[in-house]
TrEMBL record:
Xref: PANTHER family: HOMEOBOX DOMAIN-CONTAINING PROTEIN (PTHR31948:SF171), ZINC-FINGER HOMEODOMAIN PROTEIN 2 (PTHR31948)
InterPro entries: ZF_HD_homeobox_Cys/His_dimer
GO cellular component: nucleus
Recorded GO MF terms: DNA-binding transcription factor activity; transcription cis-regulatory region binding; zinc ion binding
Coiled coil location: none
Protein name as it appears in the record: Mini zinc finger 2-like
Upper taxonomic lineage: Eukaryota, Viridiplantae, Streptophyta, Embryophyta, Tracheophyta
Domain ZF-HD dimerization-type positions: 22-71
Keywords: Metal-binding, Zinc, Zinc-finger
A Gene Ontology BP annotation from the UniProt entry: regulation of developmental process
């Protein structure tokens, strides 16, 4: 998958969810000739399974994940949904 999710507990019943995504590739393919040219890859797609060698390589452009723009999305979630409708009336 192209995203990493992390849960952080902020306070009682409130959770901060962080989703890390790697967007467009910023690798300069023309650095040797003094220009700035990117390959146009717009989303990091791991070339291998998580934990394997290919996981940090983009399947589309073959660049290392570090060349892709890192975007962190944060959400707040409240409580846990397992206790939603379990109270009998
Ligand atoms: Zn690339």
């Amino acid at each position: 998958m192209n995203l990493i999710e992390e849960l952080k507990k902020i306070s009682r019943g409130i959770l901060m969810k962080e989703r890390i995504m790697y967007e467009d590739c910023r690798k300069n393919h023309a650095a040797s000739i003094g220009k700035y040219v990117v390959d146009g890859c717009c989303k990091f797609m791991p070339a291998g399974e998580e934990g394997s060698h290919g996981a940090l390589k983009c399947a589309a452009c073959n660049c290392h994940r570090n060349f892709h723009r890192k975007v962190v999305h944060q959400f707040l979630t409240y409580g846990d949904c397992s206790s939603k409708s379990s109270i009998p009336k």
